[in-house]
């Protein structure tokens, strides 16, 4: 049994612990305990919630169709071994082209249109690497435009010397279509169409075995050529471009098309095109590109748009998603 002295000591210890706990509790000037109010909790939670929602909504990493891990591994393995090529560069009237010819033979042709300031062999190293999206057994032609003064182009208006390019029109052509002179675009259109015919005859292949793609202004030319092709090609890929056409001067923003315009678009219903674009593209803005694709291609062609997150407007730094490889591989029947 506890003695009266023990009981007294226990009660004394309990009092001392109670006093110490009381000292640990924050108090205000009136010596009252402070508790977190609902307002204080909201002040903490609301900013965190806002930041989280902003990250989820405005900073997407990828918004693309899902492929299985097995598909991605298989597609990646298909490109593990470098293909050996013979290189060739030639300058012809108003256009420069280069080729990469597989030493083990080929059965398809891919024509790549460079962007502003890019010479014909700019992407030799990329297309020879395991990062390439081009299936094996494909001969690659690189075309670059003739030197031009790009006073209307973003980031090029201060250049004193001409740079390779396809046309010199305002980058906001879709906003002010009637203010642009499409003369250079039409000239380049004829040059590329003639070159496609020449390549077709040299290689002795059907037009369906020829594929066309490009980056930046080269992507814009790819889209422009699709709308004005003399022949249906195997497929078209546009990296970081947008759509314009000289026959749609009044309708580049308003999707109300005349019957003649609809007829022109419907004539392309069997054309296959893949476009990729970054939400954060700082040269060809996504907000300008996506609506142009919607008006021209979405309802009238076999069209797919892959929208990426915070990627720069630099082609070698733009990761080639397995879906791009798979799209081209499937199109080529490989």
Blueprint of the fold:
Elements: H1 4-24, H2 38-58, E1 62-63, H3 69-78, E2 85-92, E3 95-102, E4 108-113, H4 124-128, E5 138-144, E6 147-148, E7 163-164, H5 183-203, E8 210-215, H6 217-227, E9 235-239, H7 259-266, E10 272-278, H8 286-298, E11 302-308, H9 322-331
Parallel strand pairs: 4-5, 4-8, 8-9, 9-10, 10-11
Antiparallel strand pairs: 1-11, 2-3, 3-5, 6-7
Helix pairs in contact: 3-9
Write up what this structure looks like:
The structure is a single chain. This protein has 334 residues and is of the alpha/beta class. It has two domains: 4-58, no CATH class; 62-331, Rossmann fold, CATH 3.40.50.1820. 36% of the residues lie in helices and 18% in strands. The chain is built from nine helices and eleven strands. It has helices at residues 4-24, 38-58, 69-78, 124-128, 183-203, 217-227, 259-266, 286-298, 322-331; strands spanning 62-63, 85-92, 95-102, 108-113, 138-144, 147-148, 163-164, 210-215, 235-239, 272-278, 302-308. Strands 1-11-10-9-8-4-5-3-2 form a nine-stranded mixed β-sheet, sandwiched between helices. α3 (69-78) packs across α9 (322-331). The radius of gyration is 31 Å and the shape is globular. The chain starts with a helix and ends with a helix. Mean pLDDT is 75; it is low at 2-35 and 53-77.
Name given to the CATH homologous superfamily of the largest domain: Alpha/Beta hydrolase fold, catalytic domain
Mean pLDDT level: 75
Shape: globular
Q: Reading side by side through the largest sheet, how are the strands ordered? A: 1-11-10-9-8-4-5-3-2
The oligomeric status of these chains comes to: single chain
Whole-number total of structural domains: 2
Give the fraction of residues assigned to helices.
25-40%
Would you list the SSEs in sequence order as H and E? HHEHEEEHEEEHEHEHEHEH
Give the class-level CATH name of the largest domain.
Answer: Alpha Beta
Level-2 CATH architecture of the largest domain: 3-Layer(aba) Sandwich
Q: What structural class is derived from the secondary structure elements?
A: alpha/beta
Biggest sheet architecture: 9 strands, mixed
| Rg calc | 31 Å
Number of helices: 9
DSSP strand count: 11
Strand content: 15-25%
- What is the terminal separation in angstroms? 92 Å
Unreliable spans are 2-35, 53-77
Which topology of the largest domain does CATH recognise?
Rossmann fold
């Amino acid at each position: 049994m506890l003695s009266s002295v023990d009981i007294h000591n226990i009660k004394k210890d309990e009092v001392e612990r109670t006093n110490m706990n009381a000292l640990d509790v924050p108090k205000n000037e009136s010596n009252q305990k402070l508790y977190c109010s609902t307002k204080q909790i909201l002040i903490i939670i609301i900013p965190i919630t806002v930041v989280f929602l902003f990250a989820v909504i405005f900073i997407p990493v990828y918004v693309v169709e899902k492929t299985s891990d097995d598909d991605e591994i298989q597609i990646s393995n298909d490109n593990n071994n470098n293909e050996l090529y013979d290189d060739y560069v030639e300058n012809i009237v108003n256009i420069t082209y280069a080729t990469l010819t597989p030493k083990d033979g080929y059965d398809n042709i891919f024509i790549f249109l460079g962007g502003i300031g890019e010479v014909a062999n700019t992407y030799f190293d990329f297309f020879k690497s395991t990062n390439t999206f081009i299936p094996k057994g494909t001969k690659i032609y690189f075309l670059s435009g003739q030197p031009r003064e790009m006073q209307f182009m973003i980031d090029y208006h201060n250049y004193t010397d001409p740079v390779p390019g396809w046309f010199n029109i305002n980058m906001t052509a879709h906003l002010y279509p009637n203010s642009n002179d499409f003369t250079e675009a039409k000239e380049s259109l004829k040059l590329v169409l003639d070159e496609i015919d020449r390549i077709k005859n040299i290689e002795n292949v059907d037009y369906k075995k020829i594929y066309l793609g490009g980056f930046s202004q080269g992507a814009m030319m790819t889209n422009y050529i699709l709308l004005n092709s003399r022949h249906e090609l195997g497929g078209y890929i546009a990296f970081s471009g947008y759509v314009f056409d000289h026959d749609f001067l009044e309708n580049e923003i308003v999707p109300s098309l005349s019957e003649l315009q609809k007829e022109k678009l419907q004539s392309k219903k069997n054309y296959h095109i893949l476009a990729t674009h970054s939400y954060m593209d700082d040269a060809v803005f996504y907000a300008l590109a996506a609506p142009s694709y919607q008006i021209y291609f979405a309802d009238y062609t076999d069209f797919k748009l892959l929208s990426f997150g915070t990627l720069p407007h630099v082609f070698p730094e733009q990761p080639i998603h397995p879906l791009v490889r798979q799209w081209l591989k499937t199109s080529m029947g490989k």
